[in-house]
Specification:
The chain is of the alpha+beta class and 285 residues long. Strands 2, 3, 4, 6, 7, 8, 9 and 10 form an 8-stranded antiparallel beta sheet that branches. Strands 1-5 form a two-stranded parallel sheet. The protein has 2 domains: 177 residues, Jelly Rolls; 99 residues, Arc Repressor Mutant, subunit A. Helix 3 packs antiparallel against helix 4. It contains 11 helices and 10 strands.
Amino acid sequence: MKSVADTYCWNSHRKLLTPAQTHIPALPTFGIQTRNSAGISLLPHIHPDCMEIVFLSKGFQCFEVDGQMFNLSGNDIFVTYPDEPHSSGSYPESINEYIWFQLNLRTDLPFLGMDETHASDLRKALLTLPRVFKGSSQLYANLEECFFNMASDDMLRRSIGLHSFICNLYRMLYQARNLELIQADEIENAVIYIHEHIFEPILLEDVAASCSLSLSRFKTGFKEKIGITPRTFINYLKIEQSKILLKNHSVTETAHKMGFDTPNYFATVFRRFTGQTPSQFISGQ
């Protein structure tokens, strides 16, 4: 199983801090990512001695742990425990925005500048977090502020960032304790319906009916929860699946198999999501 260690990065879509920037050995990774187009699938990997927490603000993302798939959407928090293999299964990284960080829980490593009594209590408490639970927009904003303070060259700002980060870990623990685990709701049922019918022409009226919502309520609820419109989400999934089909099928065949009205419309949508025509994609493989 591959062990993954992240490296420093700072661009418009991905910002990632390591202990070289934060001076916090127990925080090997702290990052923010905004993805406006599909990425590659996350291969199975582990983080030795580290638990990883992913806080999805907008969009949608799948993770797989021990053969079980978890479908995350807006304000969901996903937890993997030390040395636990995880991936995105067969799904690519989606259009989304999230904060993630890893915490090294080794007892011989100074933990966030805390004395050992409080550090031990916090380590144990973090290991009780459920796999998936709901966060809040305020908690996300707080962690985002922590991130940019820790990224500063100003020692005082970095100190503010660290102490605020610890406070927000406790807020996360409190929130997990007082909120129920995610249950399937109307929008999650809609996402399941879309996945199950991805090879067919999908009418929004049918998706809304699958989760017992009016079309207007469905559109509004989907955008609020997933962060993008249902049609954008459907087309995104269709284009990702079409990339697989194009390896062995023509553009016309792929358009038909994915439920597009015409090859021209398929090519238009494909280019919107990938920046290439299907023919350019095929020739570049």
